[in-house]
Design brief:
Blueprint (H helix, E strand, L loop, with lengths): L1 E4 L2 H12 L4 E8 L2 E7 L1 H5 L31 H28 L7 H12 L3 H8 L4 H4 L6 H14 L1 E2 L4 H4 L3 E6 L6 H16 L4 E5 L7 H12 L3 E3 L7 H4 L7 E5 L9 H9 L6 E8 L4 H17 L6 E5 L8 H9 L3 E6 L8 E3 L2 H10 L7 H4 L7 H23 L3 H8 L6 H13 L9 E4 L15 E3 L19 H12 L3 E5 L4 H10 L2 E6 L4 E4 L2 E4 L8 E10 L2 E14 L11 E12 L5 E10 L7 H9 L3 H11 L2 H4 L4 H20 L3 H13 L7 H29 L1
Parallel strand pairs: 4-11, 5-8, 5-9, 6-7, 6-8, 9-10, 10-11, 13-15, 15-16
Antiparallel strand pairs: 1-3, 2-3, 11-12, 13-14, 16-22, 17-18, 19-20, 20-21, 21-22
Length: 737
Amino acid sequence: MRFVGANSREAMRQVRAALGDEALILANRHTEQGVEILAMAESAATDGNVGSGDSSPRPDEPSSLPTAAPARPASPDPAQAFEAMSARLLEEMRDMRALLSRERSQPESTGTLGEQLVLTMREAGFGQVLAEEVVSALPEELALTTAMDERALAWLARQLARRLSGLDDEAAFMDRTGIVALIGPTGVGKTTTTAKLAARYVMRHGTRPVALVTTDSFRIGAHEQLRIYSRLLDVPMYALNADQPVSDLLGRMKGKSWIIIDTVGMSQRDHRVIEQVSHLHGGDSPVRLVLLLNAASQPETLEEVVVRYRQAAQAAGGELHDCIITKQDEAGRLAPVLDIVMRHGLRLLFVSHGQRVPEDMALAEPDVLIEQALADRAPLASPAVRQAAEPAARSSGNLMGQGRRLAAVLQALRQRLPGFEHLEEVWNLLGLPSSIQQQRLERLLADYPRTGQALGMIWSDRRRVPGENWSMPDVALSPEGTWLALPLLQHRQVAGQQARLEASRERYDIDVHLLNGLPDGESGEWLERQQSSWCSQVRGSQRVEYAGERRTLASLVDAGEAVGEVRCRFRGAPGRLDLFTLPISVTLKGSRRDQPRLDARAWLGEVRDEESGKVLGKRYWITPAQLGREPQSLLLTLLQSDVLPQLARRAWQRLDPAELGELRADQRLLMASGLAAVAAHLDLAEDEAAMDLRAELLGLGGGRRRRRDVALLESLVQLFMVRDAIRHLGLGERETG
């Protein structure tokens, strides 16, 4: 059979589809149509069809088709002719089988970047559920490309490392007193790990506060093995029967502040696992459970171990959150056990990789472990393997994945945005009676922002937002220039502009003021005396003194000196801000007649679309002369805060009291304006962490809209509503329990 493809890979794909993987390649050549291959089924060769009939090539057959040896003058010997042709066929087959092998080793299709990332994770040993969960949050900045480059791999490593929870340092575990019990199946390495942990504790705190306990009375020599370690470490060891509560030994271990228990190994399928964990929690002192996971075990086994031991801990009234990976040196790949740890939300404390005490154990470093896991990849055996299901049910896997992503997004927002936890506290007031809401809201806002938390303030327009009966709250700025997540209600501020400025300095130590409109005369004098930094966004009709003439700012565009362009986002889309500046003087409203005009500098900006260059808007600002020519960050902050009232209005409308229950107007406004501030911050931020967080949040929200800031706001509304539903469900379960 003859096959023609655009290239050798396509032609070979046709051969495999028609004749199978064991096809015999007779000849190949390049033609105008691509690559032409002549092949036959292996069964035809074994049936003796090779060499039968006319063996001379037809005119339309490839020139490289082997032919029978030239006939001798004497009568030809059919056996010799067949042998010669077979030799040439074998040589051709060796060459083409090598080509076929190379084709198989290459991926059949590059696909989208998301598909390539999923394949990368699967080749490393991560499961399909986790791979799909991670790639579902692929940022739009990367999703538009198809190249698997260093940036894409770095993003993948960050996402996986963020899902792998660990200790910040060893002290977080070793300096916490109490009782630690190592649990897990037989042969996972509990006794050796007990010795390693005890040795590390002794090196930090000495031998006096440490005690070892074993409950393993089943294994021959188990007590003696741990006793040898206790002698080497010079710490006491106690034996406890498996059915004895820990409290039976506490009287004999007075003065010991760190007790580590080596429990008896039991199969995860042994019904006595629950009894064992129950006895550990049977005493008066709380016991921290640490599950040991054998890195060399099959993923299905690891899955079952985690599920069964967690169920046992829950049945015994305890919790199981921590784990240690053992026998890393015996594992072919690290990814499968990391996949289990991440999907179940366990905190990974240490990784053990040998028998030496205590050298062969290290603090778990997520970045390093993920790098090791991704570096050890192998091509998947077949498409069926790629689609293999997780040991856990797929239906529950997606739900667990959503829960992990929700918790991770909330934690990232808490770490990134000052004031976010205060915004959460405002949401926590939902469902409470109005009188209690008021009391708790007053306490919450009494010390917000905290000292040192705010350096500047965006003073919002004192007029009402169009279409609403409320004004946009003021937004505080952190020392790093980040907007605080919980704004400040205007009606809680003192009356009068100067009084507000003075109060903000006394209470919050605010020294940077971003204003809508020029300050009045008294406020301007106060700002000059305090030498505070300030910037006012004004209209183009604002009149100023320039070159001895009184003119509007809009008429001075041509007189301004160009100072370059600044990248920005405007109305949810990327743009650039072209800036011009010139020295002016202004007369502030309400100034005394004898008060001189204020020397200042005007800034004129044109916002253009980043791609088309079309002018999207014009803005005008005035800054005091003392700031010189470097206030661009203040101008940009004021420009990009334009979107806050519109976003807050949208969030206000989404927060329907009919759905959320009893809700005070001031609480509703704080929630809406806080969501607007968070959404705008995430839309404006350009660092990689913000890019990752945006993608996660938009993924939870179920898609992207044309305006990214609006999409982020909608996703935040959903995030908080789900969070609130889960919180109330948890409270309800505790109350009914």
